[in-house]
Amino acid sequence: MRLRVEFTTEPFDLDEAPRHAVVAREVIQAADLDAVDVGPFGNTAEGGADAVIAAVDALLRRSLEAGATRVSLQVNVIADAPGVPDAPEGAPEIAEDGR
Question: Half-sphere exposure of 59 toward its Cβ, with a 13 Å CA cutoff?
């Protein structure tokens, strides 16, 4: 099973990325994930279920330790790899470019 996680950390700082945001991005970029897209207002990553779940665990622990007061995340099952069942009915379609 493949998963896609989207997340943000707060509080926001428009002038400089807060430490918790930097830590969250470092965790995701270092994880064993297939696709990672980091941005100033949201981040996404895709990969196998075990890798995404492990990354989310580390993301929560490390970003909260680094000062995050809120972490918002969404995890979706996606199906775009051979042998992976289709996503559940009502799940968003994922385009070939991952968006």
Answer: 28
Find the helix or strand (DSSP H, E) in which 57 lies.
Answer: helix 49-65
pLDDT tens column, 21-43:
999 999 999 999 988 988 777 89
Whether the predicted pLDDT of 60 surpasses 80: yes
What is the spatial distance between Cα 15 and Cα 10, in angstroms, rounded to a whole number? 14
H or E element, residue 54: helix 49-65
The SS3 call for residue 61 is helix
What phi and psi, each to the nearest 5 degrees, are found at residue 20? -65, -35
Q: Per-residue pLDDT for 88 more than 90?
A: no
CB 52 within 8 A of CB 45: yes
Which 8-state DSSP code applies to residue 86?
P
